[in-house]
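Loading example: each entry is read as two labelled lines plus one structure line.
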Amino acid sequence: MPPTFAFDQPGVRIRLDELPTDPPKGTSRKEAEARLAELGEELFELQDLLWGARLHSLLVVLQGRDTAGKDGVIKTVAGYLNPRGVHVVSFGPPTQEELEHDFLWRVHRHTPRKGEVAIWNRSHYEDVLVVRVHGLTPASIWRERYGHICDFEELLAEHDTIVRKFFLHISHREQQARLLERERDPRKAWKLSVGDWREREHWDAYTEAYEEAISRCATPRAPWIVVPADAKWYRNLVVAEALVEALRPYRPVWEAHLDALGHKARAELAAYRAAARTS
Amino acid sequence: MPPTFAFDQPGVRIRLDELPTDPPKGTSRKEAEARLAELGEELFELQDLLWGARLHSLLVVLQGRDTAGKDGVIKTVAGYLNPRGVHVVSFGPPTQEELEHDFLWRVHRHTPRKGEVAIWNRSHYEDVLVVRVHGLTPASIWRERYGHICDFEELLAEHDTIVRKFFLHISHREQQARLLERERDPRKAWKLSVGDWREREHWDAYTEAYEEAISRCATPRAPWIVVPADAKWYRNLVVAEALVEALRPYRPVWEAHLDALGHKARAELAAYRAAARTS
């Protein structure tokens, strides 16, 4: 099991440059991939129980700098899930209608219903990240948002939503390598964006914004996990492991509930058949 | 390539009992599965181009009797896609709010945006199926709906939505076997429903309703495909094949568009770098 960098206590100051972007020394890629396949199967099973029992839902928040691998995590980890019960939502720049509401309005309508998994590619955290870095609202506004975020996530948790937030942590060097790689491959050139290079000029401001967001909004029921993301295979393993660990404790609850539902369904069917025989 | 039972001309009367529920004689399961894996890769590639180019969207409508395999198709075929760009929507009994709107209101809000794939597990067709069989609205109402459905799907097609509608065709015998199988497996007992057995009593009424829906709403731009669905492996192959065939003609268009986007992005990046050097 990989060491994890999970933060679940608000106010504990974190420093991203003290947290690794690389896999721990000696981690075997081959073993990690074998383990990921196992976790994928367990995740699929757990999701089936979540779906059937409809007692809880799962919200996965993915944040990270450009090229950090949000799309890659979705492809790999969500690929293990039954698409029937998964909603992937990407939050881009807000529309005019969204801007005319409070900042939680647009994400609230995409929270998962019971039985479902929602995966958010970016989220309400952008309102204390890009908004802060580029001064899109006055500081007096975005400073109030940490409290609102914690309250909102607590509301979800009280409604039996299991919340896990991932920061995909890549190094400055690795981001450069990935941006240049896109440029070399003519089939990927359409994914190039000057915006990505421009945002890179604000690296330190984003670091600061992420540190504060993670520190202030890490809570027991909605923890942040800082994922070493320079190696894609390790990043996927850490996310899958954290999700399996989040769901696994509920397995007996869901199984017992499904047993009860099964007994009820059998009894109803028996009654239906008895009625059909005597009619 | 399997023979297909695609209907794209309105008004041509079809009879479901003349259409196979079994794979054609001599079809090799092993070959079918190998072919499905190839199609899955092609589907993934095509979806990536669809997503990048954002010139079109894809709407997949899945209809069929209970146990016909709608969920199975979603799991298998959607499993080949990048979850980022897929929305699976299940339409159950309408809510009060939905009933207080016209019958297309609730589906319209789930049509795919450019670049996306929407997969509908049941759809607006329920309003000429279950509604007709159980007399939930007067015949004068549901009879008008075929025309509205054709108009609606034409609207989507004009907005560059590629529409494919699948009827998963299982036999009366195979449905019984599947319902009984659910009953035998204690881990699946919670999926049992008296409702499924009750609906089975209306088998012929549903046959008639499906025949009319398929006949009246088969159009060149929104064809119906009647899928032999007694064998799951064959059913998945037919759906995957039909989707690949629907998307494949667009490949050169999407590739050319992405090339142009790539050139534009490179030029912008070059200008950005030149400006950075001289500043």
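Residues 73 and 187 of chain A are 21 Å apart (CA to CA).
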